[in-house]
């Protein structure tokens, strides 16, 4: 496939198992557009996902895919990327998958700065399991599992990522499609861990954070916003309420994890021959 | 002169007794002796009581003995704790002159006079070498090689301490018989189980390892990382065991031979990943280095109690293979085989070792690196067009491509999936996919390593064992045979799958069958019964955290 | 008039077919019929194809049938997918007048004319009730109670829709035989497995539950949280399954009866915690609601493939018990028993259910809440002075105090420990502690629930099963007996420990023994052989995600 | 035991398995002093710990103890505290236990604001397993497992905790004993989750972050430092280098998790009778 002749159609068109009106459709559409704009052909991309409505996304386009366990997309992506630093690795995840079951890997991926783009469809709920609170559900949010409302404070993923000085931290809204496409392209270009937390209405289970709710609040960052200003980014990341700023909140440069391993510079590990002479030397040193 | 004897070095953690032990063991090997090392240590960094026991012999030695011929006591506690197991007739204690502890037949070493006390290890080494009649040059060279990385002054000081100690001990009349001269090839390696396992993985072409530190598995990874640059592999310390196994799976999917290693508690966290490896048909080698449980148990001791856990770990049903190396050579060979089998069957393959084997140094001839594991495999299936990761095939094995290596899209799924790898809820397809995965069992059953039998045609007493007990089993049987009993041993280095045809006649043919295991409930005996219907007549079980020894087995047979 | 028939409601997720199904089922129960519900659904929130099948009868009904007598098609796909299984002679389809699908013998309902389409469910309910001859008042009342929480206008609109539909159907000549009148007590409950299990836990005094959502276990916790305020318990959604089991252990240690519930993949993450519960001797009830694996598998379907995994889960060796309820009553009773046994043996006790049972509603008489589980227990050991959490006792059980309740200090440890609970590396103590923990096995073996046998003294064919297949087994046997065959059934509601004395004679006495299981490899058959040496002669296995039915079993017996 | 007559001796004196000179001794000493000062008698306290050198601490004093799995102290503590809100629960953990294996629980404990005091002996290394990098090991830190030095950025626990607006966030140094005793007392008084990250030299495996290294850098916060100023706290938490401010970095008031459950107000759950009448009503509602 010649990347110049790539079209949207190359990413395919599939029947989904999502509810009509779900915010995931907008993300899927933006994702394809961003891949196209970035010139990433299906075979050049490896999606890694977990389990949830969000995590089904890569089944609905053409690309390489490893759809693994709930919450464990990041470690799989990290292993894949270290083993083959020539392929673009994108993680598709839900708020439950990424910040609930997978919370520990989230922290580690940021620390490693592994070159993986993590897209989190953040509907502030566990949707596939029929509507329990997720880590990003707001305090007081009522579900069948939390009949008196959520009693813990909501996890603010972008604030934690900025506090940890993650390489690329963005918040988006599926309802602002073009904006999302733009941020995704920047995320794909970023050489290191890139978090894009995408607000996504779940029309079946989240009757509070609806399209309208997000639409009324989400506003792109001003053009002169400097994502390299950590203080400002921390402040912006903490802003959540009547106004929710969306865009690239924070960006910092630093080598990606894999670039620190000389052996990764030589292409995929599996394609490198086993040096039996070297091994013999190593073995005989035990003599 | 003695053909074999047992040296035990005892002292506190932090006194450097592993350094001393390894140098002494290496000196034995380089002097043409065979050795077998057993280490015991506590879960602490300083203090407590650790031992480094070397069984040394002119002929190959298979197991630790409970009796000590030469006890090197780096502290008084060592004498108190081990005096009872000194051989009655002629056991000797090497101890500092300054110690006031009563120690029977003794060599009291004037440490302070021989060198600066910080070279205590070198002094002890020189003394023991002289006592047992090793060549001073061999010992000095071993010490120099060991301290070679440090500055020249340190090397020289150690050498001088060895020399002074050797001279002193050689000049003083000693209450100990020397070792008979030996003639094994000096071109042998001294390796412990984890080192051999790491070499096996490298020989198999491992390119990616992920782990979370856990005794006694950690040193496998430390051995690998030490050679990572030279061998072109990545060894990643993960944030937890769940990440470790998932990283290894990701790397394997992306085309690298991958491995992870842990112990029981860490493995518990990996069981979901085991199931993932099976469902996505991603090759994976998993080392479970056993230690006593449940829970944290005894972190630095040995046990064989994870057989049933590893055999059934992971939800759902899928084929797997489990190897349990019984020697250093098997640590190397079976690791290489595990990789080949994981690749061939596209799923999880296990190596079940334990702390005893992991830390047990032995002398072995260098491995042949050119050969590889020989497997009986089905003819490769023709490629499908378009490419389907899970194409239905006669063998159950579908062509595995590496994502990004070509235009074909590689799709793997943890949900039930169609041939392309996409999620499905088609229940007829489900049935076919289950059958496809289970068909791969044949690759495993076609390649079972039969247990090794030793003994006469029909044994009066047949001892069964698996994994690290191989040597103890052999030596116990040898003792009993020497005493005129007709004893056979049947040792399993592969514990799953099992083929009753490989062993059932032996079991039926023996007058009495006893299973010897390092656990409290006889897990392998149960498995034998499940698979063959044969009810093992008796058991010798050990679960105090120490390895099985010939004496323990013989005594256990008397009791039961 | 018919004594029994099977109604299947089919449609997309989101069409409310569970509401309709539950109302219809409840109407049957309140009309004096017995019911058995089987639900199938897909892993999605809207769309796809789901079913709610009600087997209804004048006499108690034990299992789903494959044949459908009345198909309520909420969409055209339902007709296409199920037409083939309509009973040949007189199967009837209820479908919207507007549908153009060809559907054989049909009741075409003018939905739009009868009420606002948003009351579609109420209309379907009224029609089916009239067709089968239920009393309109009973149906209306069930609907009102269901919609009672909503505003009065909604209640009235639903009532009116039911009435209009009922009147229409009653007035139109119909191609279907009515149900024979029934007379079971109206004071019966309609419960599914998860509801009964939750009630059992409440009756046992559960005070703390922690879970991470996972089908088909989640609704156990939703049932409990719904009553948390009234019953004074805390139900906590944890950040992951590891946290869930550790929280439950923490709460149990602190004096609350505790439970967690999950499915295979989540359970995999809990296995380290299982070992912790055993090592610290903390009572814990763990529900594993099975679904098809490996890995994510088929999240909303049923299977019985975690027997071996649950039996061996957790590193190290320790006693455990596993119950596998076969009915709604057993979901209640065995949960209560599981808590009592966990408390008595101070360790992990499992309930192994599955999606079929979890979602299967049945009618049962109200439970007697005053009684409790009857166990044969050793005399309580005298208290030690000073208090030692792990005091050595004859039974292996040591006095368990609650930290903070008195001056005594309660110390629990995941490392090997001394009687006080403090970490130890004393290997002699280790051996005693292992023996102490394993002694508790006797409490479990003293309280084994024997399998239930039904059939003549010596059966020509003996069917073995466990867990949720109880009803299918019974009904399959009844069919075959009706056809003149001498068939027995042996059903296990407790699958660990097993006492061969409870069943071995039965197995030996039967001409032919077949094990019926919802998995692909015959796990229980293997276990039987391991424990008793008896090799089961044949298997009927199902692993397509659907529950075993009498027809499937009979057909399977024909094939094998 | 009358709390007025409590003495240090009541907490006992035990032989430890620690190396001579280990920073853990200072923490153990300060801990006993703080318990005494807080008037907490041994039977009124429940320690929960994981596995590691740090996690052995509660074996070396008299108190109730649940010594569980590596990394899992917080969930056990959470369960225990919910089941019995009348007992003081203190978690003893290492940096590996708390931020490595236990990272996900760390995030959740902060979100819940469960009333648990978490003491983390932060020696920036996995000590019990003989010296591998921990999440708090500094970039470039060389170990046998990381021969080229740690390639990931160090986890800054106090920064993440402040970003998440944890109830009580402190950093201390075992070498400043009196200061530590003071902070521990404040932590014990805090009604909610309290994190005390205690810098602790490991004399056997960490040859970089030694007593001297810490001593040269650690300086108590000025008396006029306002721990309620989130911006300031964020800034202070990020300060790590030539100067490491120690003390209570951030404090905020909010109800503890257990106080939000009415049933927890009635004492330990296990001591509350099972209301069979209520259960009968519940059961019959299924009729
Ligand atoms: C180990 C494990 N635990 C639980 C589940 C059940 N599960 C599937 S999806 C899901 C939640 C998904 O939530 P989220 O990631 O927010 O995705 P969404 O469905 O909201 O898009 C859960 C708990 C699972 N598959 N595996
Ligand atoms: C599940 C599991 N994985 C790994 C281990 C091995 N392990 C024991 S302690 C430890 C690290 C401890 O580090 P830290 O918490 O920093 O404590 P320290 O020893 O430094 O005080 C590890 C990895 C274990 N016990 N359990
Ligand atoms: S349940 Fe919610 S997240 Fe899932 S598909 Fe439906 S609308 Fe989307
Ligand atoms: S190894 Fe380090 S942390 Fe552990 S006791 Fe020794 S000095 Fe302390
Ligand atoms: Mg979600
Ligand atoms: Mg540490």
Explain what you see.
The complex is a heterotetramer, with 2 copies of chain A (287 residues) and 2 copies of chain B (560 residues). Chain A is α/β, with parallel strands linked by helices and 287 residues long. Chain A has helices at 24-37, 73-83, 95-101, 103-112, 157-163, 177-189, 211-217, 230-238, 276-284, and strands spanning 45-49, 64-67, 88-94, 117-122, 168-173, 194-199, 218-220, 244-251. In chain A, strand 5 (168-173), helix 6 and strand 6 (194-199) form a beta-alpha-beta unit. In chain B, 38% of the residues lie in helices and 20% in strands. By secondary structure, chain B is α/β, with parallel strands linked by helices. In chain B, helix 7 crosses helix 8 (218-226). The mean pLDDT of chain B is 95. Chain B has a 7-stranded mixed β-sheet with strand order 9-8-10-11-13-12-19, with helices on both faces. Chain B has a 6-stranded mixed β-sheet with strand order 2-3-1-4-5-6, with helices on both faces. A 5-stranded mixed β-sheet of chain B has the order 16-18-17-20-21, with helices on both faces. Chain B has 4 domains: 4-171, 3-Layer(aba) Sandwich (Pyruvate-ferredoxin Oxidoreductase, domain 3); 191-364, Rossmann fold (3-Layer(aba) Sandwich), CATH 3.40.50; 377-446, no CATH class; 452-559, Rossmann fold. Classes of the chains: A alpha/beta (287), B alpha/beta (560). Chains in contact: A-B, A-C, A-D, B-C, B-D, C-D. At the A-C interface, loops of A face helix 8 of C. The complex binds thiamine diphosphate (TPP) (2 copies), iron/sulfur cluster (SF4) (2 copies) and magnesium ion (2 copies).
């Amino acid at each position: 496939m010649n990347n110049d002749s790539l079209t949207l159609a190359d990413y395919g068109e599939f029947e989904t198992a999502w509810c009509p009106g779900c915010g995931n459709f907008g993300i899927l559409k933006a994702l394809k557009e961003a891949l196209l704009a970035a010139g990433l052909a299906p075979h050049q991309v490896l999606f890694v996902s977990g389990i949830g409505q969000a995590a089904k996304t890569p089944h609905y386009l053409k690309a390489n895919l490893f759809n693994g366990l709930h919450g464990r997309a990041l470690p799989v992506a990290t292993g894949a990327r270290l083993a083959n630093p020539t392929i673009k690795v994108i993680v598709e995840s839900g708020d439950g998958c990424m910040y609930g079951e997978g919370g520990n890997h989230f922290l580690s991926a940021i620390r490693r700065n592994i070159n993986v783009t993590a897209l989190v469809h953040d509907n502030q709920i566990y949707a596939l399991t029929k509507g329990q609170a997720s880590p990003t559900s707001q305090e007081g949010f009522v579900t069948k599992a939390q009949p008196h409302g959520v009693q813990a404070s909501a996890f603010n993923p972008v604030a934690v990522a900025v506090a940890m000085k993650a390489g690329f931290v963005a918040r988006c809204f599926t309802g602002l499609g073009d904006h999302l496409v733009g941020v995704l392209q920047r995320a794909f270009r970023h050489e290191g861990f890139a978090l894009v937390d995408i607000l996504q209405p779940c029309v079946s289970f989240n009757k509070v954070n609806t399209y309208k709710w997000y639409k009324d609040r989400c506003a792109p960052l001003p053009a002169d916003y400097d994502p390299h200003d950590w203080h400002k980014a921390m402040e912006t990341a903490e802003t959540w309420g009547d106004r929710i700023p969306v865009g690239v909140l924070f960006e910092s440069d630093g080598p990606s994890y894999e670039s620190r391993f000389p052996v990764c510079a030589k292409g995929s590990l599996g394609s490198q021959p086993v040096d039996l002479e070297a091994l013999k030397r190593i073995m005989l040193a035990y003599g | 002169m003695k053909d074999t004897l047992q040296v035990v070095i005892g002292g506190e953690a932090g006194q450097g007794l592993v350094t001393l032990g390894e140098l002494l063991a290496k000196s034995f090997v380089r002097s043409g002796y065979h050795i077998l090392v057993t280490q015991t240590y506590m879960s602490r960094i300083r203090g407590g009581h650790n031992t480094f026991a070397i069984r040394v012999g002119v002929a190959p030695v298979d197991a630790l003995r409970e009796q000590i011929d030469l006890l090197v006591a780096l502290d008084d506690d060592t004498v108190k704790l081990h005096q009872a197991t000194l051989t009655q007739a002629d056991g000797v204690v090497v101890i500092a002159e300054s110690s006031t502890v009563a120690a029977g037949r003794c060599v009291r070493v004037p440490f302070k006079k021989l060198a600066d006390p910080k070279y205590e290890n070198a002094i002890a080494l020189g003394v023991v070498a002289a006592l047992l009649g090793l060549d001073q040059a061999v010992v000095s060279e071993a010490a120099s090689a060991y301290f070679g990385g440090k500055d020249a002054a340190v090397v020289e000081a150690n050498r001088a301490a060895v020399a002074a100690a050797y001279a002193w001990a050689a000049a003083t009349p000693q209450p100990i018989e020397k070792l008979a001269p030996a003639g094994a090839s000096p071109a042998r390696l001294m390796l412990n189980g984890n080192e051999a396992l790491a070499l096996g993985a490298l020989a198999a072409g491992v390119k990616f390892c992920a782990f979370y530190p856990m005794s006694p598995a950690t040193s496998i990874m430390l051995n690998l990382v030490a050679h990572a640059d030279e061998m072109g592999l990545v060894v990643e310390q993960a944030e937890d065991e769940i990440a470790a196994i998932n990283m290894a799976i990701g790397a394997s999917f992306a085309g690298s031979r991958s491995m992870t290693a842990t112990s029981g508690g860490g493995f518990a966290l990996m069981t979901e990943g085991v199931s993932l490896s099976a469902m996505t048909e991603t090759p994976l080698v998993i080392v479970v280095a056993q230690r006593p449980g449940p829970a944290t148990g005894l972190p630095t001791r040995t046990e064989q109690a994870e057989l049933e856990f590893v055999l059934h770990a992971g939800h759902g049903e899928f084929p797997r293979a489990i190897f349990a190396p019984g020697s250093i050579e098997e640590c190397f060979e079976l690791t290489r085989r595990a990789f080949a089998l994981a690749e061939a069957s596209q799923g999880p393959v296990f190596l079940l070792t334990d702390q005893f084997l992991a830390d047990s140094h032995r002398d072995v001839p260098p491995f042949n690196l050119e050969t590889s594991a020989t497997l009986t495999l089905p003819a490769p299936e023709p490629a499908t067009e378009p490419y389907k990761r899970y194409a239905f095939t006669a063998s159950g094995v579908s062509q595995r491509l590496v994502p990004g290596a070509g235009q074909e899209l590689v799709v793997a799924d943890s949900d039930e999936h169609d041939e392309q790898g996409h999620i499905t809820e088609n229940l007829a397809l489900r049935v076919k996919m289950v059958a496809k995965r289970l068909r791969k069992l044949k690759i495993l059953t076609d390649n079972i390593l039969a247990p090794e039998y030793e003994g006469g045609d029909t044994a009066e007493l047949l001892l069964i064992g698996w994994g690290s007990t191989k040597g103890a089993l052999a030596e116990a049987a040898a003792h009993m045979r020497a005493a005129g009993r007709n004893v056979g041993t049947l040792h399993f280095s592969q514990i799953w799958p099992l083929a009753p045809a490989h062993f059932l006649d032996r079991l039926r043919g023996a007058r009495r069958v006893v299973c010897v295991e390092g656990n409290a409930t006889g897990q392998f005996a149960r498995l034998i019964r499940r698979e063959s219907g044969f009810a093992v007549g008796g058991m010798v079980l050990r679960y105090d955290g120490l390895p099985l020894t010939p004496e323990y087995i013989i005594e256990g047979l008397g009791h039961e």
